[in-house]
Q: What sequence folds into this?
């Protein structure tokens, strides 16, 4: 796959881009490919913390975020697990179809919106499908430090559990449980049984599809887990990005006012008017498109901000969110 050299296409991305080479590609399971990247110039990769992700510049107009699932202690390569999405908008499809060992790519430096609390007495890691990827880096770090943890790996079937063979071979294999949707009742993941009651200084991490995360968090709260010890990262936003009443958006610094139609996102309306909008995932999960709100009430539909940040109403993810007021004034 020949990928053109690209420059940073929007503010808010990692400050420095890295030219990398694909050194290994493995078709690891049901629609999952594992990619290993190494610096094109042979230098070490920047260090990363467990839970971090990188921007992968697939083309000048397509940038996607993927969690780093390798060992954070290994700076020779970065490792990604990428699922082919059935409704891919060009990202995972291009990687699965075209990317091979020896190809060149450009990536951003690691960023972390899902950090591991190193001072925790114990950690509970719960991954749904490809959402296990950031938890693999966490497990490697916790095992190296001798920290107490358990990892729940939930998948539709054994064929979809791409990382299960390596987890069985890992040093921490006894701490891992595999849950399969097509397994018997004892093997399927059950929030009532498999989420422990809260104990002192224990932290829970969950990553995967938004409905899966919501079910895990709801049960954890029911069992007494305080919000400060619940951590999550979604790969897709739960809200609908389009649909609803039309409203106006004024981009103050650009001197532009646009009408956002019912079948249109704020970002699309602003881009059509010539406003340079920072975009990346376009699904409300990466935070790249967050813009300060000067006036008006957002209708938040992203999976990046916390509920308290939503309540503050001072930033909006323009790739997916809408407005509760007739007009929004944004600092862009």
A:
């Amino acid at each position: 796959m020949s990928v053109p050299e690209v420059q940073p296409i929007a503010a808010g991305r990692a400050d420095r881009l890295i030219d990398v080479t694909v050194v290994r590609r493995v078709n690891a399971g049901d629609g999952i490919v594992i990619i290993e990247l190494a610096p094109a110039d042979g230098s070490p990769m920047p260090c990363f913390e467990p839970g971090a992700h990188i921007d992968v510049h697939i083309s000048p107009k397509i940038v996607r975020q993927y969690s780093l699932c390798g060992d954070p202690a290994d700076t020779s390569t970065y490792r990604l697990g990428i699922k082919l999405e059935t409704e891919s908008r060009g990202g995972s499809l291009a990687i699965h179809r075209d990317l091979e060992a020896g190809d060149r790519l450009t990536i951003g430096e690691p960023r972390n919106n899902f950090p591991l609390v190193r001072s925790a007495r114990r950690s509970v890691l719960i991954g749904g499908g490809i959402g296990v990827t950031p938890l693999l880096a966490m497990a490697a770090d916790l095992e190296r430090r001798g920290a107490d943890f358990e990892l729940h790996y939930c998948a539709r079937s054994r064929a979809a559990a791409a990382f299960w063979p390596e987890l069985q071979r890992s040093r921490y294999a006894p701490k891992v449980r595999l849950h399969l949707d097509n397994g018997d009742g004892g093997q399927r993941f059950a929030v009532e049984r498999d989420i422990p009651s809260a104990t002192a200084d224990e932290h829970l991490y969950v990553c995967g599809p938004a409905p899966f995360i919501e079910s895990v968090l709801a049960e954890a709260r029911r069992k007494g887990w305080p919000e400060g010890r619940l951590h999550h990262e979604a790969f897709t936003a739960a809200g609908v990005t389009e649909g609803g009443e039309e409203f106006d958006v004024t981009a103050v610094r650009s001197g532009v006012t646009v009408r956002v139609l019912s079948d249109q996102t704020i970002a699309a309306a602003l881009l059509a008017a010539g406003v340079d909008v920072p975009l990346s995932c376009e699904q409300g999960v990466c935070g790249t498109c967050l813009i300060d709100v000067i006036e008006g009430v957002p209708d938040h539909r992203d999976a990046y901000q916390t509920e308290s940040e939503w309540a503050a109403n001072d930033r909006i993810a323009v790739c997916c969110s809408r407005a509760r007021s007739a007009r929004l004034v944004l600092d862009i």
